[in-house]
Amino acid sequence: MSTAKTKSKSKAKAKAKNGEKHAETSLQSASSPSTETGAATTAAATGAKGAGAAKSEREPIEPLPVIDYVGYESEHQLQGMMYLIENDLSEPYSIYTYRYFLHQWPKLSFLAMDKEKQTCIGVIVCRLEPHGRSNSNRGYIAMLAVSKEYRKRKIGSTLVLMAIEAMKAGGADEIVLETEYTNQGAIALYQQMGFIKDKRLFRYYLNGVDAFRLKLFCGPGVEGGANVPLNPEHSSSHS
Ligand SMILES: CC(C)(COP(=O)(O)OP(=O)(O)OC[C@H]1O[C@@H](n2cnc3c(N)ncnc32)[C@H](O)[C@@H]1OP(=O)(O)O)[C@@H](O)C(=O)NCCC(=O)NCCS
């Protein structure tokens, strides 16, 4: 009987401390996974996550970084732009490609900067020129990238919106771009802004992947790109 009492007492104690014990065990297991089975390691990882989440609840919440949007000014910004694009786009570009766009259409490229760190965390590079027999003005988005840690905060859409406005001001009748046909994120972003799928381009990229050409009609009387609200936390210092 006493054994049973002791057992039920310890059961109750164990129940009461269950969460804490589980977290402890989980953290131990997580830090020494080699001693555990695969299943135990998975549970440990979950437990460790839970414990981590509880810990972070007590930590002060870091304020979101303030983002400045600036127009391209000179080559002193080029290194940051290239670093970002080289990390995020599959297609390699030479410095001459950057210069081709930036020297001819400097007003059509924009950077998003982490104001505090003064680092370039987003970039868009475009051109605008007559196209086809009708001589309509075609805008082209050549490069768009947002640093991984800053994504999903409307920085990409804000850059696209700024580029659209600049190209429309320059007389664009339409704006096009290509993206890997598997790039769901970019396709969703552009479709949200009014772009439509125009063509599928077979093995368009050097890596053999097909592209979609996306197009936005934006001649006189056509609304486009205006339906995405800018993030109010963002500031813009381009002119
Ligand atoms: C594509 C990219 C620029 C998006 O930048 P971002 O700042 O995260 O985009 P936003 O926060 O403005 O996203 C706007 C919308 O795009 C869509 N979107 C963006 N990233 C997405 C993703 N990974 N999956 C699905 N939809 C996504 C969503 O509809 C999103 O709206 P929501 O936040 O209301 O859901 C960024 O992911 C990136 O740099 N990718 C690598 C480079 C690249 O693919 N460039 C485009 C080549 S054309």
TrEMBL record:
GO MF entries: protein-N-terminal amino-acid acetyltransferase activity
InterPro entries, alphabetized: Acyl_CoA_acyltransferase, GNAT_dom, NAA30-like
Domain N-acetyltransferase: 67-219
Entries under PROSITE patterns matching the protein: GNAT
One term under GO cellular component: NatC complex
Keywords per UniProt: Acyltransferase, Transferase
Compositional bias ranges of the Basic residues kind: 1-16
Amino acid composition bias (Low complexity), ranges on this chain: 29-54
Region (Disordered): 1-57
Family per similarity comment: Belongs to the acetyltransferase family. MAK3 subfamily.
PANTHER family found in the cross-reference section: N-ALPHA-ACETYLTRANSFERASE 30 (PTHR45896:SF1)
Protein name: N-alpha-acetyltransferase 30
Annotated organism of origin: Entomortierella parvispora
